[in-house]
Amino acid sequence: MLNRAVDVTVRTGFGDLPWIGADELLRLVDMNEAITVVDEAMRVLSAGSVAAPERWAMPVADHGRMGLMPGAAPSLSRFGVKVLGLFDADARGALPSHQGVMLLFDLADGRPLCAVDGAALTTLRTAAASAVASRALARPGARTLAIIGCGDQAPLHLEALRAVFPIREVTLWNRTAKKADAFARRYLSGLAWRVCSTPAQAAAGADIVCTLTAATDPILSGKDFQPGQHVNLVGSSTVGPREVDDAFVAKVRYIVDSREHALSQAAEFVHAVGDGIVSQDHLVGEIGDVLTGAVAGRTRPDDITAYKSLGHIIQDLAVADAAFRKIAGPARNGRSNAR
Ligand code: NDP
To answer: 268-301, pLDDT tens digit by residue?
Structure first.
């Protein structure tokens, strides 16, 4: 019990903790900057200076889970946690697939610095990561893009890939076809586009393919891909649901965001290893090591490369920090917020 005779002063900064909402985040950090900071973040991750346990999730209802992603990045002098509600589409209706909040802290003194909209942060950093990986792994001058899955992730993936490649043609597939049509009408004016009736038709011939679905069983197989393509595997972030089959894993140069996390959570890779189709040595390396040149990404024009995007808290820390630096006020207590 608190001894009232002792002079206890508890200081908190929560009264003025800034909130960076979805619109403000996207205004503060444009796609080019997101790509720049995520590129750097992936290098830092592979250099081994980021502390981040595997993401954690627990069921909180029959139709939803709570997800937790903590981490610390000394290079940014930041730590933080993203807390998400991950609810079934039927339960959340028109709300985003990833609802929540990122809390960003100062690694120097433990101060909470700001709270950031978790939905916008997740879509922005995930799309930026796909652009970073594609820039490193796809063939130069890629002009055709396949978007497989036209949900929340799709618009910023389109923007991100267009930021790094001169995309001229987009092929689309969505389980509910009318959503692919609506996406095309809203986002693809000025580009050639085609809504396809199967994922394989959309992927065929595209220089870059992004799989952005909540599919539980493979919707694409190794036979659906041709030499030279690059694929961003984004839709499955945990062991269980797979967008691609064992044959796909066996056929590609398989590059990941985090080797440690991928070995336990990259569903299609864990499945292919479990089936004896590939060994763990088939995992080529991390994108951060490809970016620094420590690991070879694409070795030949006819390689098929794949980037496994599980998503990593370093990406959230990097983008949240970039936003916070823009709003950080003048020095408080003789110290600048934005060191
Ligand atoms: P949305 O809920 O907005 O979209 C889900 C998409 O998946 C829709 O296109 C939906 O089609 C489709 N889909 C759902 N079930 C199936 C199925 N059984 N077969 C084929 N398609 C299906 O989610 P998001 O766009 O936000 O996210 C897409 C996926 O990416 C999710 O699985 C999510 O967990 C994952 N994700 C990964 C991240 C990462 O860092 N790697 C970050 C954020 C999300 P329809 O329109 O017909 O319902």
So the answer is: 999 999 999 999 999 999 999 999 999 999 999 9
Long-range pairs for 327-336: beta carbons < 8 A, 24 or more residues apart:
327/18, 327/20, 327/28, 327/114, 328/113
CA distance 280 to 313: 24
Category of 122 on φ-ψ map: left (φ > 0), alpha (ψ -120 to 50) or beta: alpha
325-337 pLDDT per residue, tens: 999 965 444 344 5
Per-residue pLDDT band for 189 (boundaries 50, 70, 90) equals: very high
**pLDDT (tens digit per residue) in 248-265:** 999 999 999 999 999 999
Tokens 């690059």: give the residue. 230
Q: Atom of ligand 1 at shortest distance to CA of 236?
A: 32
Residue 188 contacts residue 157 (beta carbons within 8 Å): no
Atom 39 of ligand 1, residue of closest alpha carbon: 311
All domains of the chain in start order, with CATH: 9-121+314-333 (3.30.1780.10), 140-310 (3.40.50.720)
Q: Return the H-helix or E-strand segment holding 48.
A: none
CA of 235 to the centre of ligand 1 (A): 6
Would the CB of 265 count as within 6 Å of ligand 1?
Answer: no
The number of CA neighbours under 13 Å toward the Cβ of 85 is 15
* Main-chain dihedrals φ then ψ at residue 76, nearest 5 degrees: -95, -10
Q: Which two tokens stand for residue 250?
A: 């066996």
d(CA 272, CA 286): 18
Which numbered atom of ligand 1 lies nearest the CA of 216? 18
> Which amino acid would we find at residue 177?
A
| Gap between the Cα atoms of 282 and 37, Å rounded | 28
Q: Which residues contact 178 (CB under 8 A, 6 or more apart)?
A: none
Q: What is the pLDDT of residue 16?
A: 81
- What does pTM read for this prediction? 0.94
